[in-house]
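RECORD CONTENTS
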Amino acid sequence: MPQLAIQLFRLYLPLVGWALLGWLLGRCLPPSAPKHLGRVLFWVGVPISIVGFLRGAELSAQIWIAPGVAWVAILTGAGLAWLEIRRHKTWSKPTQGSFLLASMVGNTGYLGFPIALALVGEKFFAWALFYDLLGSTLGTWGLGVIIASRFGLGQKRRSHLLLTMLKNPALWGFGLGLATRHLPLPPPLETGLHQLAWSAIALSLVLMGMRLSQLASFDWLNLKMSSLAIKMMLVPFLLGLSLPMVGITGSIQQAIVLQMAMPPAFSTLVLAETYELDTNLTVTALAVGSIGLLVTLPLWLLILG
């Protein structure tokens, strides 16, 4: 238990510290500040961090299991959410769509990456990366767009969102990182790349705090808490503890389960706003899920040993 407490302290100190700094900056800076920081991270910071961390990551043939598990988790979350929707026949179509998205895709990029790096290290970071880019990202801008357009009212920008997925710099950084991971670099350049990668992770946490500071609409009574139970507890428990059956144990199992247990992704709010879904449900799920992670994370570390 003392070792777990030390591990959590080392994780929460930067995690909460950078997010709190972002929350304070979000209250002080102009409302457009998160948008500008998001663009810098989207086009520069995240691709650089992917290239940098891939150089120290351990890749194996088994790593392709990660995106496979991600898609099983996404579809399982959607299936369980649909069963819950069938129990509430009075829900509107937009509410159903937001509930499905909140139960399916998690914040495996901005939040999942720093947690994976802190708990399992750079050696196993590639498992979280494959889970995010080939699972969560494609699930959000592929299946997520289909669901949002099916249950939402606004359907004018589907092609724009699909094009955004194809133009995602993270996917291009992923390809560049794989192609150059064995290319030797001068020590100063290697050190600089590594420092830039960690700086991008810290700024991602700052951005998350800034975005949380701008979430002002909380429909607490109308929140369908079962979406968070499905996304952050039920799906990781059902699938994560089954991973040893396919030979996934130890730090690799921990990396994948932690990605499955992430709160809903901020991209679900983009889809909710674009397709006129239930933004109150989406916003509250984002806020409660992000804060609730501080409680669920120790539970997962205890379960995973």
In short: The chain has 13 helices and no strands. The chain has one domain: 2-304. The domain at 2-304 is CATH 1.20.1530 (Na+/H+ antiporter like fold).
